[in-house]
Amino acid sequence: MKSVVDYAKKNKLLLLVILPAFFSYLSVIFPSGSYYCFGGDCGIYFFGAQGRDAIWHLAIIENSFNKIPFVNPVFSGEKLYGYNWLLDWLIFLLTKLGMSSVTAYFRFLPIVWFILFTFLLIFFARKIKNNPLFVMLFLLLSYFAGSFSYLLTLFHTGSIKGSSLLFPQPVIHMMSNLSYAFSLLLFLPILIILKAGKLNFQKIIHIGVCLFLIMGLKFYGGAISVFLVFTYVILSNISQEAGMIIKFKYLLIISLSVIAGLLFFYDPLRSLKTGQIFGFSPFALVHTITESPNLFYLRGLTNARYFIQAQGKIGPRLIVIESLNLFLFLFFYLGTRFFGFFYTGFLLVKKKLDKFDTAVISAILFSILLTVMLVQKGVWWNTIQFLFYAIFLLTIYLAEMVFNLIKTGRIQRLLIGVLLILSSVPTSYDLAFHQRRTSPVFIPTPEIEALKFLKKLPEGIVFISNREELSKNINDPIPLSNFQDSSYIAAFTGKRLYFAEAQTLGVMGVDYKQRLQRIKKKDCTVLEEVGYVYEIRNFPKVDKILARCKPKNSKIVFKNESVIIYSMMK
């Protein structure tokens, strides 16, 4: 740690990259969870993906860990399984030290993460090439290099505005996916250990611990990490006579770490009761690039593919079509890292790849393979998160390529290197300056009052009305109550919900459909299973279960201009 600080002090130009990155990253997450007034709409605001994902994490933090086994915050009576909850548990521990979950999630942890991430990036970059220019390039590209989605918005609208929303991207978006961001704090030490070479049992134990913890943060990262380590160990030349036995022991330790992580954090047998977590659907995600009108739409190519597939034949034409689809998918998603990907081929031809590079490139190909071939239960396109780790790893080779272009001193290569840098950052610019304040959702002041009151009431399951989302203007602040499955009530009251977050429940493998049907049918027996009904007053009467059931034991315990809270306690 001290060596990194000394290095940064000696090479102060690194601050020209680090400081803008610090403020850009924090600008994505810091504004959320605070009280604002916009055009008379006052309340606690959340911006971008924070309006869903962060609130879900807050719901877990405020509800799940107060009981053992841990409980599901949005499906009463169910345990918490099939989900990466490690970061939420760490925040829960911080709340026990007096820090609010909102402060921990939106303020404290992002700062801690950025500092640790930067230290690890510098340390790792110096392991690759101990040159200040390379370290600066690696930092710059790790922080800011995004996709080529801005080329699509330029074509369709003449502007890069909105380009950062086209594709799920880890760059800067990491602040909207803290579990992924923190998984990199464990992924980088693994890379550092492997880059140093000369494995021993102590290093393998350290790697095993990192793998176990990564599984608790991101399953996708765990899968890519274990493949990376397995490949490296298999490629390692162990000089002792018992080399094969040592390799076997190393692989056994790694395997046990991953299996322990799976069982401890996910309880996969329970999740599998509702079907396989992943399904085999080749090119499902890839096809969106040429099927979507707002992307690289190729109607003729798409129609030709459908026609050939209808014939049930796999021939040269279909292979060419799918190869083009894959090429376009990788080009637009990887951005300038696409050229870093091909740079690895150049290194292969020049025989400049060592076992570390071979393992890393194998992991990149593996993550692309999983992204291309699989879909996920609940949210089919969630497998894009496998690609996030390929994107991160490809930064190594993009930085090397740009560094080698610049260091030659030849004007043509220097210009190419500068062009690669400049073409890497537009989507990050769009996110930092255009999109960080778009799509705001908020909890209005009257609801804040209601939630504070509900939080003080005795423990009980809360029922919220099921309804379709209201039509909305994306530029206007949207009350969170407009969303039928938001978990904000659980997040801000510490009380579990009878039902919410259908999409997330599907990802976790919870069998929720029967309960959802009961709610949609306004089955009055549902009210026998809850302690409170949280009713938004301006909801249509048809959406209010109490208007139909009229239970005798319902009692109004809170009422203001926006919310009525009923107690159903017997």
Automatic annotation (TrEMBL):
This is Uncharacterized protein. The chain crosses the membrane at residues 12-30, 104-125, 132-152, 172-194, 206-235, 247-265, 326-349, 356-374, 380-399. It comes from the Bacteria. Keywords: Membrane, Transmembrane, Transmembrane helix. The lineage of its organism: Bacteria, Candidatus Roizmaniibacteriota. The keyword Protease does not apply. It comes from Candidatus Roizmanbacteria bacterium RIFCSPHIGHO2_01_FULL_39_12c.
